[in-house]
Write a structure and sequence with these properties.
globular, mainly alpha, 227 residues, 52% helix
């Protein structure tokens, strides 16, 4: 009888400890979720072409306007949004596509061979400084061609939209899976991949600063009572 009571007592103690640990774990998990968004850690996955973008439209827009104060915020917002939509439709990393656009056009200043009226956001067809490159009828088509060109390099999958990239068929499919492998293919600059990586990292830093701000604003002020 005494042995049975000891077993019962030990069982109750273990059960209580288990419940206590479980409650603490649940509370900790809740605090992590309630405390705000998690911060993005920079790693190689963010440099892959066929992947999901991780930054927000807000951070992308601010990043673009930070380097181009002359562009209309409304037009900039449309371009950012179109990059997100078109990239997601083809399974392309919209952070990579957007940042490559910023790099190739000088943040839409178009000081190279390509002019704004061409709607050519990645230098398609500019094989040298003396060639003006391809023309596209509107912003959406130009962005779609850019996304399709990236997919040509990074995947062997078929396009979901009708092909608007005239140079799509010239690419050896699945020959560049990340931004570093575009070096020597998309551009001859040996530092091309690192230049794109630096801009992606800057965009991620801006996204993390937005998340930090949201987290700070979500915390109740000291001495205030929740209602």
């Amino acid at each position: 009888m005494k042995f049975s009571n000891c077993v019962r007592y030990a069982f109750l103690v273990c059960a209580s400890l288990f419940m206590l640990v479980g409650c603490n774990f649940s509370a900790s998990s809740f605090r992590k979720k309630a405390g705000g968004l998690t911060f993005i850690q920079k790693d190689s996955t963010h440099y892959r072409i066929m992947a999901k973008g991780v930054t927000s439209e807000q951070a992308m827009l601010k990043y673009l306007l930070q380097y181009n104060r002359k562009i209309s915020p409304k037009k900039a917002a449309y371009i950012v949004r179109t990059y997100i939509w078109e990239s997601a439709y083809e399974g392309v990393n919209y952070d990579v596509a957007f940042i490559q656009m910023c790099h190739e056009t000088g943040f839409l200043h178009f000081k190279g061979a390509v002019s704004p009226v061409q709607n050519n956001f990645c230098g398609l067809g500019t094989l040298s400084d003396s060639t003006v490159g391809l023309f596209f009828p509107d912003v959406k088509t130009g962005i779609r061609a850019h996304i399709q060109h990236l997919k040509a390099y990074a995947s062997s999958q078929d396009l979901r939209n009708r092909c608007v990239d005239p140079r799509f068929v010239l690419i050896r499919r699945n020959s560049a899976n990340d931004i570093f492998e575009l070096t020597g293919k998309w551009a001859t600059d040996r530092n091309y991949g690192n230049l794109i990586r630096k801009k992606i990292d800057d965009l991620i830093d801006m996204e993390n600063s937005f998340r930090q701000k949201k987290q700070s604003e979500a915390k109740p002020k000291e001495g205030s009572e929740s209602k």
